[in-house]
Write a structure and sequence with these properties.
The structure holds two protein chains of two kinds. Chain A is α+β, with helices and mostly antiparallel strands. Chain A is 25% helix and 34% strand. In chain A, the strands form four sheets. Chain A has a six-stranded mixed β-sheet, with helices on both faces. In chain A, strand 7, helix 5 and strand 8 form a beta-alpha-beta unit. Chain B is 69% helix and 0% strand. Chain B folds into two domains: 35 residues; 212 residues, MetI-like (MetI-like fold, Orthogonal Bundle), CATH 1.10.3720. At the A-B interface, strand 6 and helix 2 of A face helix 8 and helix 9 of B.
Chain lengths: 365, 304
């Protein structure tokens, strides 16, 4: 129904601020695409452009093959869910949901059928006569979803719709959104700054920063093969550990060196950096990519002093001081550690990331 | 000690202060109403009668019947005994002038809303260059005292050939009231979340429909505030009306009532009866919109 395509789209505000810098992006029909990034990265601007709420100041935006740049929001077949829900305070839940259909002049019987149908799916039937201020946050969220659902739009846009919910509700709503996407069979574009939300929901993730796309890919790709240090650090909790150092040739291979620390880089990395031995690099180690149980082998071990122990129920985070820098690792909670102890952690070198220090770009993928 | 004061002393003190304040505000009005029911002889008695000893409706009867009487220098002394025989020569202009005031005030209210509501919506919800500057520029036009504007206004009205015409008042009152109305409404519209505007437009509203179907119903308290402010400004305005109107055809109530005090002789009870009538329309308006007034005046101060 709707493929959304950005061709060199830019957004510059009258004051000169560039919110979006020449975006090329092809959102496939029925795809669940998540725009991920910190606040001010241009993700909401991108979403608002799809809705027609922000002007395109450069390039073209297409729905299928039609240029949409100058089409006002009410002539675009999109529905949107907002972070604040933006329910109409003076209308009942029923009227809130029906409003978009009324504006599009659907028959009253059709409106009634669709509103009740959506209310049943979202389990808000008993609330139809209430006003938004009589609802809880989760209920308001459902009404906002209902308002978008009944329209059966070509594209479903969501701007941080779960940010105002409490943690437990957020997790259960994620599952519902995923299910909604499957039943609605329409294109979803979802904006969030929450990496866990993005990883759970997305068919594809677009990571943005300061108006520029950093990486586009499947959730696993984004997590496993980040293109640069920003992407690597933005996904993962606790975030990836960075260690600055140099690469040196070592026998047949290449190793990463920083002070007393020396890690042998696996062949797939060594191949990429082989000719650049001696350059300044940044090593990335995900917190989960260490193992305490296996016997450390030479060149795959991190020695450090435990600076903090943070149990989180299912497992625990260790703050380990390595060569003057504190790194965080996730280890099993059955291991008993105390602050000040020395520890040797076996590093899963096959999962290491290596970035160029100057550009921040990956040297691996 | 302090606990006892907090429980008894503080409310008592506030009560006394409120009573004093209310007395200060309401005493002149009470005297106006009371004296409008007194004959001229009683009104001048010392000490004054707060409650009329011989209440009479003659002052009001005089107002509603003067239309048929020709009051001249010769006949005025044979006027109605209730007024102390002193009916102002312009008495018969009072009711028509109230009609004029009402027409002008209602016309300005309606035109003001038609202009200022879309203007305020645009200034609050559409980003354009010079947006905040224009809001404050509009407001600065209101720090210029009216007296400084009288001459330019007069020349303008004169050139348009509208002297002694109600349109002269409608046009100039709009110039006075629109900037302030826009300012109040901009503040209120800005307090309504942008996402509401976006939601309405994605839901299928054009800008105008978003304004009419979503923003206006929510802005009702501030619309009432603007309506009252505009109506009262027009109803009470004196200076411009004095300059632009010369005959009963266009004179408004404040001009005619003022003329009562500058006649050959003066009847205070008659003037006060006219004052009571002048207060009636604003009071009716205030009662009609009572439940919106407080929320309208504080609109924007608290998040809706």
């Amino acid at each position: 129904m709707a493929r959304i395509r950005f061709a060199g789209v830019g957004k510059q505000y009258p004051n000169g601020f560039v919110a979006l810098d020449r975006l090329d992006l092809d959102i496939r029909d029925r795809e669940f695409l998540v725009l991920l990034g910190p606040s001010g990265c241009g993700k909401s601007t991108t979403l608002n452009m799809i809705a027609g709420l922000e002007d395109v100041t450069e390039g073209n935006l297409y729905f299928d093959d039609a240029v949409m740049n100058a089409v006002p929001p009410h002539r675009r077949d999109v529905a949107m869910v907002f972070q604040s829900y933006a329910l109409y305070p003076h209308k009942s839940v029923y009227e809130n949901i029906a409003f978009g259909l009324r504006m599009r002049k659907h028959a009253p019987s059709e409106i009634d059928r669709r509103v009740r149908d959506a209310a049943r799916k979202l389990e808000i039937e008993p609330l139809l006569e209430r006003r938004p201020n009589q609802l809880s946050g989760g209920q308001r969220q459902r009404v906002a979803l209902g308002r978008a659902m009944v329209r059966q739009p070509a594209a479903f846009l969501m701007d941080e719709p779960l940010s105002n919910l409490d943690a437990a509700l957020r997790i259960s709503m994620r599952a519902e959104l995923k299910q909604l996407h499957q039943t609605m069979q329409t294109t979803f574009v979802y904006v969030t700054h929450d990496q866990a939300e993005a990883l759970t929901l997305a068919d594809r993730i677009v990571v943005m920063r300061e108006g520029v796309v950093q990486q586009t890919g499947l959730p696993d790709e984004i997590y496993e093969q980040p293109r640069n240090m920003f992407v690597a650090s933005f996904l993962g909790n606790p975030p990836i550990n960075f260690l600055e150092g140099k690469v040196r040739p070592d026998g047949d291979g290449v190793c990463f060196e920083r002070g007393a620390l020396s890690l042998v880089l696996p062949p797939h990395i060594a191949r990429k950096v082989g000719s650049d031995a001696g350059r300044d690099v940044v090593l990335g180690i995900r917190p989960e990519d260490v193992d305490e149980h296996s016997v450390p082998r030479d060149g795959e071990v991190l020695h450090g002093r435990i600076a903090s122990v943070l149990p989180v129920g299912s497992d625990q985070f260790l703050g380990v001081e390595v060569d003057g820098k504190q790194l965080f690792f996730r280890v099993g909670k059955e291991l008993h550690h105390r602050e000040g102890e020395n520890v040797a952690l076996s590093v899963n070198v096959n999962r290491l990331h290596l970035f160029d220090k100057a550009s921040g770009k990956t040297l691996v993928w | 000690m302090s606990v006892a004061f907090a429980r008894v002393g503080r409310p008592a003190l506030l009560f006394v202060a409120s009573v004093l304040f209310l007395g200060y505000v309401l005493a002149p009005i009470a005297w106006m109403v009371s004296s409008s029911f007194q004959p001229e002889s009683e009104i001048t008695s010392v000490p004054p009668h707060w409650i009329p000893h011989a209440p009479t409706a003659e002052n009001f009867r005089a107002i509603f019947t003067t239309g048929e009487q020709a009051v001249t220098y010769e006949t005025r002394r044979q006027g109605d005994p209730a007024t102390g025989h002193f009916i102002p020569s312009t008495a018969k202009n009072l009711l028509p002038s109230m009609g004029n005031s009402l027409i002008v005030a209602l016309a300005v209210v309606v035109l003001n809303l038609i202009v200022s509501v879309p203007a305020a919506y645009a200034m609050a919800k559409i980003r354009f260059i010079g947006r905040s500057t224009s809001v404050y520029f509009m407001l600065t036009t209101r720090v210029i005292p009216d007296i400084a504007l009288v001459v330019p206004f007069f020349l303008f009205i004169h050139k348009l050939g509208l002297l002694d015409n109600l349109w002269s008042l409608i046009i100039t009152y709009l110039a006075i009231t629109v900037p302030f109305s826009v300012f109040i409404l901009v503040g209120y519209f800005e307090s309504l979340p942008d996402e509401l505007d976006k939601a309405a437009r994605v839901d299928g509203c054009s800008r105008l429909q978003a304004l009419l179907r979503v923003f206006l119903p929510l802005a009702l308290p501030s619309l009432v505030a603007v309506t009252l402010f505009t109506f009262l400004t027009c109803w009470n305005e004196f200076l411009l009306a004095l300059m632009f109107t010369q005959t009963p055809a266009s004179q408004t109530m404040p001009i005619v009532v003022a003329s009562f005090a500058s006649d050959f002789t003066i009847s205070f009870s008659f003037i006060n009866a006219a004052g009571v009538l002048a207060v009636v329309p604003p009071v009716i308006l205030a009662i009609m919109f009572e439940r919106y007034i407080v929320s309208g005046l504080t609109a924007g101060a608290v998040k809706g």
